[in-house]
Amino acid sequence: MPKADVPVAWVESPLQLIGAAEWAHAHRSRVDVAGRLAVQVEETAAELTRRGAGFAAQAGYWGIPWRALAAHDHWLVGDGFSGQFRLAVAVLRPRRLTFLDDGLQAIAFADALTGSLPYSRPGVAERGLSRRVAPFALDHMRLRAAAGAADVFTAFPLGDERAGRLADLGVSVGRHDFEWLRASAPSRDVRRALAHDRIVLGSANVEDGLVDRDRYLAWVAQRVRGGADYLPHRRESDELLAAVRALPGAHIVSLGLPVELVLAGDDRPRDIVTLGSSAAVTLRRVLQGSGAVVREIPFGQREGQRS
Questions:
Q1: With 60 as the cut, is the pLDDT of residue 306 above it?
Q2: Which residue of 14, 108, 114, 285 is 20 to 30 Å from 80, comparing CA positions?
Q3: Contact of 95 with 74, CB cutoff 8 Å
């Protein structure tokens, strides 16, 4: 019989896992965790557990964790666009659904749920089984919403208009500002690793084919001049990191943890620079009150210019 008292968090990225910890804290609950078998997800789970996250049973999975999902009435879902999620929700039809943040995709997913956008991952040409089961998955999500059994738990600003459309559908919106994460204590290894007041956030744009490698390295070179910690994106290749390491002033900090977890609890007024990503939104919340400044600097923009 499915568990009615403890939800399961089906998570595939570190940010989704942090969202599950924040949900558990906000609801004074514990959650079982079905996490993707990936190094950074596992290391994030270990660090969150060390800090006292409200996780109960934890298990890693390849593919769909059918047994764990079937054992729970309530799912906390990290990626509502996932083809695996579509298949699982269409087959198992859980009684309650909560959608956690998956970066800026959280906003696109909210629009897909309400019909403002098609139910497909932005910028991806979907095909095969994932496309065929999409209508059945969307139908069940909207049925749960109409029954008052679907909600979104997010740190991203959805805006009044989007929140109103979700409410019309029956979806409630829960907000958080990483309250639990900000109050948790970073490990000594994390504190010792950061050597500079300037931090440059790495990007996966080169690996995704969105940015020319040489242009990206030139951007990083400008940012690390004079000394800076460089926090790689989890999908940056070893080859790219070797090129970054060779830049004057670059100090690569590879902790196997998401930047939100690395910097949470840090009280130094750091200068944090990014090309532009969901981390710019999350870090401004994680670092509230620290005096840190998070700046998005696009290509071609000088340090003193406004973005």
A1: no
A2: 285
A3: yes
Q: Which CATH architecture has domain 8-182?
A: 3-Layer(aba) Sandwich (3.40)
Return d(Cα 270, Cα 264) in angstroms, integer. 12
CA diameter of the chain:
60
Tell me how far apart the terminal alpha carbons of the chain are, to the nearest angstrom. Answer: 54
Per cent of the chain over pLDDT 70 is 94
Rounded to whole angstroms, the Cα distance separating 57 from 50 reads 14
> Domain boundaries in the chain?
8-182, 185-296
Reported as a single tens digit per residue, the pLDDT across 181-209 is 998 876 666 667 888 999 999 998 899 88
C-alpha to C-alpha distance for 294 and 58, rounded to whole angstroms? 33
Residue 193 in tokens: 């690793």
Question: Sign of the CA dihedral 287, 100, 15, 34?
Answer: positive
